[in-house]
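New to this. Look over this protein:
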Amino acid sequence: MTTGFLIFLSIILNYAPAILAQVENGGVADPATNAFWSLLRIIFALLCVVALIYLVLHRGLGKWLQKSQGGKQILVKERVALDAKRSLYLVDVEGRRFLLGGSENSVSLIGEFPVERSNEP
């Protein structure tokens, strides 16, 4: 529905100046009218691009990232670098959450925590 509306609005913005020029001026286009419609088309195009960027980043990209994690049993929820060679990892494995410490040569289990269920989509 949104795409159809955008196409309809685009057609109106493209053909309205020509129709108005023919009706009002007997076929002679007024430069001020053309400048107004050109500016209106530019603003409309900019709004369409911003809306498309928003939809891709907040709707499409989020769903794609969720699908990419869909079948995995191990999910690294967060990583915090302590220094150049040591990090902490928060990892979910089959409904259990672990806090792991990793260094250049080893990985250590620091603790296990219950997984918090959230109502996020």
Notes: Strands lie at 74-81, 87-93, 96-102, 107-114.
